[in-house]
Specification:
This protein is of the alpha+beta class and about 700 residues long. It has 26 helices and 28 strands. The protein has a seven-stranded mixed sheet. The chain has a seven-stranded mixed sheet with strand order 23-25-22-26-24-27-28. The chain has a six-stranded mixed sheet with strand order 1-2-3-6-4-5. A hairpin with a 2-residue loop joins β27 and β28 (about 685-690). α18 (about 445-465) packs parallel to α19 (about 485-500). The model has no long low-confidence stretch (mean pLDDT about 95).
Length: about 700
């Protein structure tokens, strides 16, 4: 990829001359889709990013929201999609490293990770290879740096066969006195490169992420993939804490896309400043590196800090204490962004033009056609077992058992429930985290599917007794130059924005990843959403039945089958389900119910429908007998993935009804100590013991162990 003729002409007009090779490469990377959001920025104004709790919104390395008067949460999300196809282990690992450094750059300490992963059909050998490599990379990096991966999602869909997605979110904790931003403060302050030495890995990573994957990408594009060092990142985490403790950092940015050139130019541009940088002062790990390599290499575990001149020695002392590199590479100025190398000026351009001067794309879009009703003819028991066993709805224990989700002693609810719950003990509050998307939903109906993604994540938090506080999104799409692809992408942006606004949940930051297209075609439009919520204390009901209560469905009993795993497994199509009239009221009601002492279990109804939700609640010691009455088809009652619903086990059903007000409530049956799921629907009876359910849901583990 190189600077396009039209972009070249704009740069020449701005500079009044031909760009140097280093300038051309820097503009190419900073004006790429990955960095400049040229195709997506015109759509992003749909998001509401403001509320009384938002301290720092979109535009910084991570967003900041207030948990209470004394405690802030940082929240960010990133994608590492192309690198994870080329090198699944290192691609995924460095995705974790990058989002953690985004957290550090705000002065925060990282406390939790969430990963949302998307692969081709599970039965394909290549998909399993990518899946295993990505999970191993996330596990290795997260476990080594001591940041727990507490929640996430995994989905399989043939649209990801040539281009998997790896989206990682991170939550950190900070307070007002420690808060740092990526906005340069004062001319004359020094710029310090801190952390690992610079090598040649990751060259052109930003531009690589802004083009379709070629058939030979796994071999030809390997040099564009960074190589991570989690042990150096752990040292960087602790060193960053010392630097912030001693008030030595005036502003900060992590080195990710476009390397030093990207981080340093964006830092000074955000503050309306410039910089003078001597690239020859950068500490390097490879010999004979040239200016362009030093400027654009995406070597990992590096930060750039703005430091007062009198504090540079103290910063260097901390680097030495943690066995990390440290170089004073230049200073903040009131002029252009200038880089020299061996006495020659290789970059001299306005920082603001580098960071924000890329023109936006005006692209044609075509809205997808709504799906009609064409349902398959299936045997109910066979269909139930097929849906229950599908990797999308099967147990993900194989994944999360590889993660150290308890390191740091903050994880109050382990993976496997609807959302994670992390204890912020100094504040006496629990932080619930949910992350994910469903490609079946957004492939069938981008706009409605994205609305469902937002509502489902909020419902997951409500099942923990938490209410949404803020969200970040990772908007993944194919080649936006294709009108049908861009139409689907526009749909997920608008749908996500509309539902988040309805739920009064500000979208405070995010990431866009386009050109996820390969020889096998574009990915489904995939709007990964990560949402944080809060509650008093850090106790919450789980999804396992107690065996001594009444089961209620809060929300509508059934809906249409559009976007369901049932149709994905058996063929056919249908309209997407109709949403609740007041989704915010449903979420609020469920959160209240989850916090009642008489509530013994809560489980969101989503992937696979009500039948799968009930099966997931059964244990060896607790079962349930359920009757699903109504006029809807049996398949609609069992398999509709109508969002905004949850199964509640309670010892006081009347209080639940009083609590939820106008939200529909259906009594499903009672729980007992049988360890068996028994469901009667449309004259048929489905009955499965807990061990048979576990065996059916163990498809991923059986295949990979």
């Amino acid at each position: 990829m190189s600077l396009s003729p039209s972009d070249h002409d704009l740069v020449v007009a701005e500079l009044g001359r031909e760009p140097t090779p280093a300038e051309a490469a820097l503009f190419e990377n900073l004006w790429s889709e990955h960095c400049a959001y040229r195709s997506s920025r015109p759509l992003l104004s749909a998001f509401d990013s403001e509320s009384d709790d938002v301290v720092v919104g979109p535009g910084d390395d991570a967003a900041v929201v207030a948990l209470d008067e004394d405690t802030y949460l940082t929240f960010g999300i990133e994608s590492h999609n192309h690198p994870s196809y080329v090198d699944p282990f290192d691609g995924a690992a460095t995705g974790v490293g990058g989002i953690v450094r985004d957290t550090l750059s705000m002065g925060a300490y990282p406390v939790a990770l969430a990963d949302s992963l998307y692969f081709g059909d599970f039965d394909r050998e290549h998909s399993q290879y990518l899946f295993e490599g990505v999970v191993e990379g996330i596990s290795h990096y997260g476990n080594c740096i001591g940041v727990p991966t507490v929640t996430g999602s995994v989905a399989f869909h043939d649209g990801y066969e040539g281009n998997p997605l790896v989206n990682v979110a991170c939550v950190g904790v900070v307070d007002d006195e420690r808060l740092v931003t990526a906005e340069a403060q004062e001319a004359g302050n020094k710029l310090v490169l801190f952390g690992n030495a610079t090598g040649r890995d990751g060259l052109g990573g930003a531009s690589f992420a802004s083009e379709d994957l070629a058939e030979d990408a796994e071999t030809e594009d390997r040099p564009a993939v960074q190589v991570g060092d989690p042990y150096a990142e752990k040292l960087l985490i602790e060193a960053n804490e010392r630097l912030v403790d001693e008030s030595l950092v005036q502003s900060a940015r992590d080195l990710g896309a476009a390397g030093l050139g990207g981080a340093s130019s964006e830092l000074v541009a955000k503050g309306g400043k410039g910089a003078d940088i001597d690239l020859g002062t950068v500490h390097q790990r490879e010999p004979n590196m040239n200016a362009l390599e030093i400027l654009l290499a995406e070597s990992q575990e590096r930060m750039v800090y703005e430091v007062r001149p009198e504090d540079t020695e103290a910063v260097a002392d901390i680097a030495d204490r943690f066995d990390l590199g440290c170089s004073v590479i230049g200073e903040v100025t009131d002029g252009n962004y200038v880089c020299t190398f061996e006495g020659e000026t290789v970059v001299d351009a306005p920082a603001k033009y580098l960071a924000d001067g890329a023109p936006m794309n005006d692209l044609e879009s075509v809205e997808p056609e709504p799906q009609s009703r064409d349902l398959p003819d299936t045997d109910l028991a066979d269909a139930f077992e097929a849906v229950l066993a599908h990797p999308n709805t099967a147990s993900k224990e194989w994944v999360y058992r590889q993660y150290d989700h308890e390191v740091g002693n903050r994880t109050a609810k382990r993976p496997g429930d609807d959302a994670a719950l992390v204890a912020i003990r100094d504040a006496g509050r629990g932080v619930a985290i949910s992350a994910g998307a469903d490609p079946n939903w957004t492939d069938a109906a981008p706009y409605e599917g994205a609305r469902a993604v937002a509502l489902e994540n909020a419902t997951n938090l409500a099942a923990m007794g938490a209410r949404p506080l803020a969200a970040v999104d990772c908007l993944n799409g194919g080649n936006p130059e294709k009108p049908d692809v861009y139409g689907g992408f526009r749909g997920i942006v608008d749908g996500l924005a509309e539902m988040c606004s309805t739920l009064d949940t500000p979208v405070v930051g995010g990431n866009v990843s386009l050109y996820n297209d390969s020889a096998t075609g574009p990915i489904p439009p995939t709007p990964t959403l990560a949402v944080v919520g809060s509650k008093d204390g850090y106790d919450a009901p789980g999804t396992d039945l107690s065996g001594d209560g009444t089961l209620l469905l809060v929300g509508e009993l059934s809906g249409t089958l559009g976007g369901s795993q049932y149709l994905a497994s058996h063929g056919g199509e249908d309209a997407f389900p109709t949403f609740p009239e007041d989704p915010a009221a449903v979420v609020d009601a469920l959160a209240t119910v989850a916090n009642q002492s008489t509530t013994t279990a809560v489980h969101d109804v989503s992937h696979g429908g009500l039948g799968v939700a009930l099966a997931e609640m059964v244990t060896d010691d607790a079962g349930v007998t359920v009757t699903l009455d109504g006029d809807a088809l049996a398949e609609e009652r069992l398999f509709s993935e109508l969002p905004g619903r949850a199964v509640v086990e309670t010892t006081d059903p009347e209080t639940v009804r009083e609590t939820v007000g106008d939200v529909p409530v259906t009594e499903l049956g009672t729980s007992d100590d049988s360890g068996t799921l028994s469901v009667s629907v449309a004259g048929e009876r489905l009955e499965y013991a807990s061990d048979a359910i576990a065996e059916t849901r163990g498809h991923i583990t059986r295949t990979l162990d």
